[in-house]
Design brief:
alpha+beta, 2 domains, eight-stranded mixed β-barrel, rod-shaped
Length: 220
């Protein structure tokens, strides 16, 4: 028992010496560290990391606040204006030439009896010849269109106006009731619709209509 106590007394000074040595070593290291570039490096590194974190946060906020890029579609080109001024009622707007009949007929704006007595009438609510839609012409079967029944699919119709020369090719022949309004409906492309009363040899007011539907194939 006495021996154990004696050993404990001897080990205490050794522990104190070790602790004291460690303390002195830490103090000396601290003094050396603070007097060298190591301290400056550590300080600079810490400041760099703090600044980087701040920049990352700023970039994130900026990206979130930035508006999304909007693609602005290009404007579609405006359609070509063939007729700067609309014709007046009763005005002669051109001629209709029918190669199959070798006939040239004047076209007047409007389809009242006054226009139809002078020649072919242009339905005022339709586009003018050459324009991208359905241009409708009408005439009496006993005057200008007395031989229109000889004109059929594949034949040409040529319209000459102030905007140029427009050649159409007959795509379809229809015979419809006088009240059928489908002949004047809009078309997705330049179309010429020519109408007259039918049958051609009918005595009195004819009940039907002879219709030629032609597509624009050339412009000069």
């Amino acid at each position: 028992m006495k021996r154990d106590k004696s050993e404990k007394r001897r080990t205490k000074p050794i522990k104190r010496l070790v602790l004291l040595s460690l303390s002195i070593a830490l103090i000396v290291f601290g003094v050396w560290f603070s007097s060298t570039n190591a301290a400056s490096f550590l300080k600079g590194y810490l400041l760099f990391k703090i600044g980087q974190a701040g920049n990352d946060s700023h970039l994130t906020e900026s990206a979130a606040a930035a508006p999304a890029k909007v693609e602005i579609p290009e404007k579609a080109p405006l359609p070509e204006v063939l007729y700067p001024e609309a014709p007046t009622k009763g005005e002669n707007i051109g001629d209709l030439y029918i190669p199959k009949l070798d006939a040239t007929l004047p076209i007047f704006h409007g389809t009242d009896e006054e226009e139809l007595e002078k020649g072919v009438g242009h339905f005022a609510d339709s586009v003018l010849p050459g324009e991208a839609d359905n241009s409708v012409l009408s005439g009496h079967r006993d005057t200008v269109f007395r031989k229109l029944g000889e004109v059929g699919k594949g034949d040409l119709l040529v319209v000459q106006t102030s905007a140029g020369k427009f050649t159409y090719k007959v795509r379809q022949v229809r015979i419809v009731d006088q009240d059928d309004r489908t002949v004047i409906v809009p078309k997705p492309k330049a179309t010429l619709t020519v109408s007259t009363c039918y049958p051609f040899d009918f005595i009195g007011y004819a009940p039907d209509r002879y219709i030629l539907i032609a597509d624009l194939i050339a412009r000069e």
